[in-house]
Design brief:
It contains 5 helices and 5 strands. With about 180 residues, it is α+β, with helices and mostly antiparallel strands. It has a domain of about 120 residues. The strands form 2 sheets. Strands 1-4-5 form a 3-stranded antiparallel beta sheet.
Length: about 180
Amino acid sequence: MNFDLYDMDRSLQICKGISKHWKVHIRPFPDPLFEASITLFLIRLHHLLMRADRGGRRLRFADDMPIGFDGDITDLISAARNAACHSETGRHTRADGTRFQFITIDGKGRIDVGGIVAENMYKDDIAIFFGDLRIYVWRHLLRALIEIEDIFRDDLAVLQSWKANPKSEGTFTARTFP
């Protein structure tokens, strides 16, 4: 059994499970589990995007990128993942030294903290800020999940076939750690 396929499938299933939860229970503030779910989602989606990029199938859409951000969705999710996982990085510090670690705006709106503005342009989305970096839940994260699932559809069909009839390809043993 190919562990890469298993890992890809696991990352995809975790992202899909989190996104199903968001569709029913999403409350970005003051729910501490929202930040945790965003972080795990970013970690797992980043894994899938890096795998696609290494295989020559990079996700490249660049809609609604933050002002001054030079990159595509793969770069944006990579930067957001790094900011979510490494709070000591400069990603949380704006040009004037103000720190924004995890700010959410649910629906169209803006906040101004000492002249620093964070703005969500859409009434139907949630904007998450790590310093100057803004990422949208629906327009960025869930769109990337849909597109990455489509990219890996044929690859993961092999794994689904094995799951349906595990004896056809030999024995599968999950990795264990001491």
